[in-house]
Amino acid sequence: MKMKKLFVFLLPVFAIAGLILFNACKNADTKNTGTMADSTNTGAAPTAANAGLTLPAGFSAAAIAENLSSPRHLVVTPQNDIYVHLSGSNNGKGILVLHDDGDKATLKTGFANYGGTGITIKNGYLYASSNSDIYRYKLNDKNEVIDPAKPETIVSGLTNKRMHNSKSIVLDNDGNIYVNIGAYSNICDDYDKDKKGCPVLADAAGIWQFKADKLNQKQSDGVRYATGLRNVVGLDWNQQDNQLFVMQHGRDALHDLYPNLYTAKQSADLPAECMFALKNGDNAGWPYLYYDWMQHKKMLGPEYGGDGKKEADSKYLEPAAAYPGHFAPDGLLFYTGNQFPEKYKNGAFIAFHGSWNRAPEPQEGYCVVFQPFKDGKPDGKYEIFADGFAGPNKSPDGALHRPCGLAQGPDGSLYVTDDQKGTIYKITYKK
Amino acid sequence: MKFKIACLALVTSLFVLNLNAQVRHTKKHSSSGSAMARGKIVYNSICLSCHMAGGAGVPHLNPPLINTTYVLGDKAKLIKIVLNGFNEDVEINGQTYSNTMTPHSDLKDQQIADVLTYVRKSFGNKASSVSAVEVKKVRASK
C-alpha cells in the first residue's frame, strides 16, 4: 500500500523523466548527426593536411585566407601582395589587398565601390572590371595602388543583362586589353525564334578588344575580336604562343529541351567545356553548334536542325582542347614559374568551379586541372591536379569550397580562390 | 519490480503515443498524395536540373524555392512565372540570381497546379495547394 502510494505520488515524476529520457535519445541522435557532419567538415577544413586538398606527390596546400566574401579572380605582385576581386562590393571594398607572409595572408586594405571578377596587372597598372566597366589604377614601384579612390575608366557600358555578365580581362604585349562579354541566354532560343540568326551575337557572346591605355571607351569603340562564345570566365594570354586562350562554358539543358534526342546521362556529359586559342575574327559557333568531346566532333545544335548525329559546318573554330560537360571553367592560368617540376612549365591550370546542370546525374568538377602544353598547344590528356574542394557533398549548394580564380606568385607558387567559403589556397612544391 | 515495469510501461506508452502521432501525420500528408506524386514527376523532369532535387537552387545562378515569398506568396504571381518564364532581378536573402528561366506554358493547367502544389509543400515549405482552375484563370488573364 505504501509502495502504491509512493508510486502514485511519483507518477508525474516518471512521466517527466520518461519524456526527458526520450528527448535525450532524440537529442543524442541529432547530436550524433551533428558530430558526424562536423567531423567531415574538419576533414576538409583548412586545419587538415593540405587544407583538405589532394595533390600530386611533392605538392602541398595551405589556406592562407578564409571567409572572404566570394573572391573571384586574383593577382599576386612581386612583393607578395595579393589583389583579389570580390563578386560584390562590401562597404566600398570590392577589391581586397592582402599580404602573403608565407603560410598566411594578412588583410592590408580594400577599395573599389564595385564588385566583379576580372583583375590583372600589366605595365605599372592594376586593371579591374565590374560587370559592365573596366578601370585601371596606377601602381607605385612597390606595385601598390597610388590612388584607390580615383581609378581611370578604360571602358564603360559593356553589355550587362544579368545572365553571364561577369567580365574577365587579360592584356597582350601590344597595348590591348581583352574582355569577355557573355551571352545573356543559354542557347539563344528565346531571342531567335524564327532561326534567322542569333541577335545576341551583335553585342555579346564574344571577346572584345580595347586599347589598354585609352580612357573612356564605349563597347562600340572596341573590336569584336572573336564571336560565337557562349560565356568565358577563365582566360589568359599565352606568352609562348603570343595568343589569347579562353575557356568556354558550354550550353545547358540538352535533355530538358530535347528529351527525345538526349538522355539525362548524355545531357550531363555533353556538350564539352572547350578551350579555344583565338585569333582576330574567329567564330566558335555558339549557338549553332556544340562540341562532343567523346566523338571529337562539332555537332549541329538541336535548335538549328541537329539531331545528335548531324555535324556542324566545318567553318567554325575547332577547340584546342575539350573537357567533360558542365565542369564550369572559371579560371585559366599558363604556368611560367620555376618552382613546380619541369612538365608544368608553360602548361595550363584550369579551375573548374563545378557543375549544376548534370542533375539528376551526380555533379562533377570542383577541381583544378592541369593541361600539358607543348610549343604553345595542348599536348596530351589533362590531369586532375587539385581535388577535394567540395568535400563530401559535390553539389552547388552543398560543396564546402568551389575553385574559381588562379594566380601565380613571384616564387612560382599557385594561388586558387574559392568563391563559396572565401578561401585563398596557396599551392607549393618541394622536391 | 512493479516499479520498474510501471516505469517501462510509461516510457513505452509515451513512445507509442509519439509513434501514433507520427503515423497520423504521415497519413494526413499522403491524403493529398496524388497531386504531390504527380507534381514530383513534373518537378523531376522539368525543374530539378536547375532548382536541384532539394529545391536549394544554385548560388548566384538559379534561385532557391525554399522559404521565399516568390513560392509561398501570391499564387497568381507564381503561376505567371511558370507560364511566362522569368528574366528579372531576383534577390532572396541578400543573394542575387542571374539565370533566365524559360517559359513553361506548354505544360497543362493540371501539371502546373501539381508541380506548384509539390513545390509549395516540399523542401520544408508549408503553403496551400494550387488548383488547375487557378492556373486556367491566370492563363486566360494573360
State the gist of this model.
With 431 residues, chain A is mainly beta.
Overview of this protein structure:
The complex is a heterodimer of chains A (431) and B (142). Chain A has 431 residues and is mainly beta. Chain A has helices spanning 2-44, 254-257, 264-269; strands spanning 59-65, 71-76, 81-90, 93-100, 105-111, 119-122, 125-129, 134-138, 152-155, 169-171, 176-181, 206-211, 223-227, 232-238, 243-248, 273-278, 282-283, 289-292, 297-300, 321-323, 329-334, 348-352, 367-371, 373-374, 377-378, 383-386, 403-408, 414-418, 423-429. Chain A has two domains: 1-44; 50-429, TolB, C-terminal domain (Neuraminidase). In chain A, the strands form eight sheets. Chain A has a five-stranded mixed β-sheet with strand order 10-11-12-13-17, with no helix packed on it. In chain A, strands 1-29-28-27 form a four-stranded antiparallel β-sheet, with no helix packed on it. Chain A is globular and about 55 Å long. The N and C termini of chain A lie far apart (84 Å). In chain A, 47% of the residues are buried. The model of chain A is unreliable at 6-46 (pLDDT under 50). Chain B is built from six helices and two strands. With 142 residues, chain B is mainly α. A two-stranded antiparallel ribbon of chain B has the order 1-2. Chain B has helices at residues 2-31, 33-51, 69-72, 75-84, 109-121, 132-140, and strands spanning 90-92, 95-97. In chain B, a hairpin with a 2-residue loop joins strand 1 (90-92) and strand 2 (95-97). The chains are: A mainly beta (431), B mainly alpha (142). The interface between A and B is medium-sized, with 33 and 33 residues.
